[in-house]
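pinging the channel bc i need a second pair of eyes. not urgent but kinda urgent?? the chain im working w is below, pasted from the shared doc
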Amino acid sequence: MNLPDKQIRSLHPQEADTQRTPGAHPLLHHAIPCLQDCIVRYQSTLPGLVNLGTQLHGLSPSPEAGRLVTLIDLYEQCTPLLEQAMWSGAADFHALLASYQSLFREQESLIRQRCQNGHTADDRHSFILSIPVADRPPHLQACLESIYQLCTQFDYGGHASGVWDKIKIIVSEDSRDETNIRRHKDLIAEYQLKGLQVIHFGLDEQYELLHALPPQQRAQLGNLLTTQPREQFYLKGQAANRNLSYLKCLQLTENPDNTLYYLIDSDQSLRVNRQTETGEEAVVALNYFHTIDAIFRSTDTLMLTGKMVGDPPVSPAVMAVNFLDDVIAFFTRLATLGSEQGCQFHGVPQAKPGDAAYHDMAKLFGFENGPTTFDYPCRLEGAHDHGACLTDFAQRLNAFFFGEHLTRKTWFDYGSGFAQLSPARTIYPGNFIVNHAGLKYLIPFGHLRLRMSGPTAGRLIAAEIGERFASFNMPNLHRRTTEAGMSDDFRPGVEVDQAGVGQASIDLSNEFERQFFGDLMLFTTEALVKQADVNQPFARDGIESVINQIETELLALYQQKHDAIVEKNRQLSALIFNAGHWWLNEPSLANALRQVRAFIDNIDRNFGEHATAWGQIQSAEHRAQRKQQIIEALMNYRAERDAWDSLF
């Protein structure tokens, strides 16, 4: 749907009382000003609103139950029309968004009115959100703020009591630093005052809740819930922390039949991004709770997962080849431009990265991404030259090792809407929802600390419940780093020394090693569930046959990737430091070039010939140890699931 800007008319607040749908009863108008104004404002460009206006004319102002139900349903017909226009790319986005949000708030007030009049109870789902967090106060703040903004703008369930009644939030602590724990608690207190029901699930409480389980059952669940002693009950890992939070979710559940459990990572926010002429814009534009509730009420879904937009949801260990391609392309183009020339790295790019464009081995996941490079979008505002652009670019380069990709963000695409379901095969650990029955389908193997735990669990779950494990188009905004900078970020498996900002020596060998063996477990599991019954224990000989074949294939792919990184990093170094380009003669760029040199050195340190992780991957002895762990974990999966299922 393409709507010319001139056809989308803006209605100022002071005009609201003078614009009415002809023939509507004034008392009815008083109850639904936002719906009335929406029809008046947009009916000439959104033909579907004309029919809604006709239906509205036929309604009596009587507050009888049937009339309210019909009226509430009009909003369900109206909001999709605004969604399509809003995301068409040709409309006044912010004017439509404001109207869209106000419609949901007004609909919520009518639902409360219907309940207060005793016609019916609000039988929509309540939500318990779980946010695992480990030493990440800035991320947690952004996450909580997004939930607060979502509640404020859409008002799901209402907050007449002073708090949003249908939303509870568990912050599941996994921090080692007491200072960060205090900062997390302060943030929770701040958002409690704003009306969010936020609960801190601390280390001591987690330990006590775990040890309230019978000893035999606790022993059976050790790999799922952790066996850490009380004095070291931190940094258990995202899977163990999330699974422990399920116990707290159960404790807080008042009505199991009418509660949904929403798992969100602390570096996620309930927003999406859109690309504009001035850069990336994060918007509170998806009514997550409303749509998720409708999906679970109208389908037999047990588990629902959404994807992510923004920073890639993968490790830098699998993005180095394509990122080096884009960095080389940036400097190649920069060499043709003048230092003091106005910056040319602005505007909406001609091409957006497609699915998994950030992944060096996207073909493994069924994506056919070509060798296209993507332009760097300069984030500086106002007039500036290429020297300033290079300075800012260099400051962000080493954020790559924390998972930020400067050139291949993922952007929200409305497509055919939010609620259309498709069969899922991957759990996005930072964005999935289950009902009470779906709590059984957890993310296992946390004790191995491998990457790709969500895709691995997804293959097992999809094999067990089929289309009742579904994906929908409501991604979360994923940001690896915050405005506080890398010095205030924590990322398991990434070690940083205390060098100057942007010049740090970074070691992600732990994460790189966990990535290779996470891939090995994922593709072993994927092949295994195609030939074995996931509801029965996997046999050792079957697992060994599959894992040995997958190992050979992965080693070859990782060797190709390794060779490509070494060669591209050599090309980049020569381009920047040996080709005599203008930036070498600019004294003001000396620090920027040091930051670029640190990036090149970090690439070599982590992916070069002498990289620790590369040595581990090549070691037959190390691989044998890891393979044995994977084999035993897969053999024990069914017994551990049975023990977990017994909790429900």
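so The chain has three domains: 5-116, 124-289, 316-410+501-638. and Residues 1-27 have pLDDT under 50 and may be disordered. — does that match what u expected or am i reading it wrong
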